[in-house]
Amino acid sequence: MAETVIEVRGLRNQFGSHVVHENLDLDVYRGEILGVVGGSGTGKSVLLRTIAGLQRPAAGSVRMLGTDMETASEAELRGLSERIGVMFQDGALFSSLSVLENVEVPLKAIPGLGTELTEALARLKISLSGLPWIAGDKYPAELSGGMRKRAGLARALALDPEIVFLDEPTAGLDPIGAAAFDEVIRDLSRSLGITVFLVTHDLDTLYAVCDRVAVLAEKRVLVTGTVEEMAEVDHPWVKEYFLGPRARAARGAIAAPPTKG
Ligand SMILES: Nc1ncnc2c1ncn2[C@@H]1O[C@H](COP(=O)(O)OP(=O)(O)OP(=O)(O)O)[C@@H](O)[C@H]1O
What we know:
Layout: E1 4-15, E2 18-29, E3 33-38, H1 44-51, E4 59-64, E5 67-68, H2 74-81, E6 84-87, H3 99-107, H4 115-128, H5 145-156, E7 163-167, H6 175-192, E8 195-199, H7 203-209, E9 212-217, E10 220-225, H8 227-230, H9 236-243, H10 245-255
Parallel strand pairs: 3-8, 3-9, 6-7, 7-8
Antiparallel strand pairs: 1-2, 1-4, 4-5, 9-10
The structure holds adenosine-5'-triphosphate (ATP).
GO molecular function: ATP binding; ATP hydrolysis activity
InterPro entries: AAA+_ATPase, ABC_transporter-like_ATP-bd, ABC_transporter-like_CS, P-loop_NTPase
Pfam families: ABC_tran (PF00005)
């Protein structure tokens, strides 16, 4: 039985009178890549932020890596934040710092690490994210959107997290760049055993890398399962999303990958 690393129960999020989530339950298992999908405004990013501890829920509980985030002490929450990494849509990099310096930011919080080791670890994360060595010395404004995303991923990986949260990692990338990014995510999860919580609209990503999918609708997680299982779900949004022409194309791409050379 897989270990549950995130357990959400009875979650409510609201902004004023606008209830985004009500009675939402979700389990995430160690080592899996979970794709979170749902219509625009269903609260995928709010859910990510709540679980990652960046936003407090109005009600309900989030247990991450065995710690109840509501009752945890400051020190426990700090410890927990070192075991997760978050990558935002635009990479959320500091524009005045080079890529290397950006990735070094979380590492500098480790006492006694030293300048050389900090730089070596940051450079390792930069290359794990699929960026060339030289990219470390560039500033965010000098990079393409895809490279900035990889730099954001490198920073999310800085502290060897057990769980990585990715908010629309392939949004705005061309199809080749998006497929390459999918591959990086899959390789990282498989080789380092990282659990990935991935918010996406990208059907290709769902079919290519996700072990399971969680569909947000009606203010809660309506259903979870494999992408294949989604085709059997009798709900109008799920049917339209997973049985529409784009889903057919994404499924077809997996069934018949392009032949080489
Ligand atoms: N800080 C905030 N203050 C007020 N309302 C907010 C805030 N953050 C999110 N919301 C609202 O919560 C709802 C869910 O937002 P969220 O960004 O999580 O949706 P989403 O499913 O990620 O959407 P999309 O797919 O378009 O990115 C939206 O109606 C949004 O306007």
